[in-house]
Amino acid sequence: MAFIVGIDGGGTKTAVTITHDQEDALFTFTVGHINYNGGDADAIAASFEKIFSQMKLYCGKLQEVAH
Questions:
Q1: In the predicted structure, residue 5 carries a pLDDT above the cut 70
Q2: Are the CB atoms for 25 and 35 separated by under 8 Å?
Q3: Is the pLDDT of residue 24 over 80?
Q4: DSSP state at residue 15
Q5: How far is it, in rounded angstroms, from Cα 20 to Cα 10?
Q6: How far is residue 45's CA from residue 16's CA, in Å, rounded to a whole number?
Q7: How confident is the model at residue 14 (pLDDT cuts 50, 70, 90)?
Q8: Are 65 and 2 in contact (CB under 8 A)?
Q9: For 13-20, what is the mean pLDDT?
Q10: pLDDT greater than 70 at residue 64
């Protein structure tokens, strides 16, 4: 069963939820901003790094995420 990842990115924080297609939220976390209008490229890259790191930890591998 594939995982589904929802990302609500903003200028101050980014909320991420991981779930399966027929289940409630399994794992939710927040990281820093990912909005280029609100910050520098290094901070945004760090936020994406945290997102993908958590996705890999929870889902096992990124190939398990539906696209």
A1: yes
A2: no
A3: no
A4: E
A5: 24
A6: 15
A7: very high
A8: yes
A9: 92
A10: yes
Sheet containing 14-20: which strands, arranged edge to edge?
3-9, 14-20, 27-31
- Pair 55, 5: CB distance under 8 Å: yes
Rounded CA-CA distance 41/25 in Å is 30
Burial class (CB in 10 A: 0-12, 13-18, 19+), 28: exposed
pLDDT at 20: 82
Stated as kind and residue range, the H or E segment containing 29 is: strand 27-31
For the chain, report the end-to-end CA distance as a whole number of angstroms. Answer: 13
What is the predicted pLDDT for the residue at 61? 81
* Nearest Cα residue to 43 out of 58, 55, 31, 52: 31
Query: In sequence order, which residues have a C-beta less than 8 Å from that of residue 27 and are 6 or more positions away?
Result: 17, 18, 19, 54, 58
